[in-house]
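So, could you explain this one?
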Amino acid sequence: MFKPGTKPDNARELSPKPEPAMATPSSSYMLLIVEPTGQRQERGREGGEQAYARMLAFTADLQARGLLEASNSLASTRQAVRLQVREGQTQLVDGPFAEAKEMIGGFFLLKNCSREQALEMAALCPAAEWATVELRQVGPCFEDAEPL
């Protein structure tokens, strides 16, 4: 589990001053809040309500900036269900999922912003203090093969 005040080996610092960049086309980005399973139970209701209030203030800030398309918090994996259809057979697995070490705790869908703006907003997200904020550009579910 991530400990406050530490950072993963592959973490990098954001530059205090943004470097001059070429014009970047606006796009949509999703900030996924990836939190350790069990973290919500550990912090308890009062800690959870405080964290949620901070996230609501962040949501209001994104709205005021005109960047927010959608956002929501997600219930824990205790209420989740995984579904697969293989060879015509549907399989359901009810949560919680013993093998899961992390869960998606919520998301923010940003609109009309550059990657740099989305990274700036991710760094301002309060959840970055207790979870990982994963930045993903919205795009098709296929990719061109990249040369080796």
Remarks:
- The chain has one domain: 27-137.
- Residues 1-6, 15-23 have pLDDT under 50 and may be disordered.
